[in-house]
Amino acid sequence: MKKQRALVTAVDLERSPVVANNTMNRERGLTGVNSYARELGIDPLTHLAGRPAPSWLDLCSGEGRALREAAPALPDDAVLTAVDLVGPLAPLPAPASMQEVITSVSSWTPARTYDLITCVHGLHYVGDQLGLLARAAAWLTADGLLAAHFDPDSVRWADGSAAGRAAVSALRAAGYEYSPRHHRLTLRGGRGMGLPFRYLGADPDAGPNYTGQPAVGSYYTRRAL
Length: 225
Known about the structure:
Layout: H1 10-15, H2 36-40, H3 44-48, E1 55-59, H4 65-70, E2 79-84, E3 98-102, E4 114-119, H5 129-136, E5 140-149, E6 155-157, H6 164-174, E7 177-179, E8 184-188, E9 197-208, E10 214-222
Parallel strand pairs: 1-2, 1-4, 2-3, 4-5, 6-10
Antiparallel strand pairs: 5-8, 7-8, 9-10
């Protein structure tokens, strides 16, 4: 059994060096070797093609390069929203279709739904990962797609024991698909969602995860739906 460490609140977590970092999605573009298409196993432009006023929400977007690169290939009425705790480290030109929101993804809620929602390795730095996944399910359009990386080993019960298997089981029961090989969650079609977990707090000193980079541990208890 893994010993539980001292847990921190959302405010303290987001001030910690492991979360308020300057490396998340800084150089990752739309396609190519270091890209969203490679990491997520989908071509965002292919998913958005042919849709009226296509919309894409990127959570933990960093510099927002993927959205910037996508904008010229999309209609003028496309809606691209980049949300990041730190945001671009230097001013960058933003297409008219792109909105940059510098805030915590844990407390932010959009005013609309999206055809595509992505979170490339961003959940590793979110305290209440399961809460965000449940909320984001309602941000999808009826035939929208959500794709995000998820590490079950980062999910723990209050006593420090592993809760990843229970988390994946609950996510699958709610409609998510999970690929252990790629550590990737996908959800097709927006919906209201409840998960049988109550968030307790986070451990910013959980250490490296499968990416080899320091990540956050998320602690929960069971709750009735």
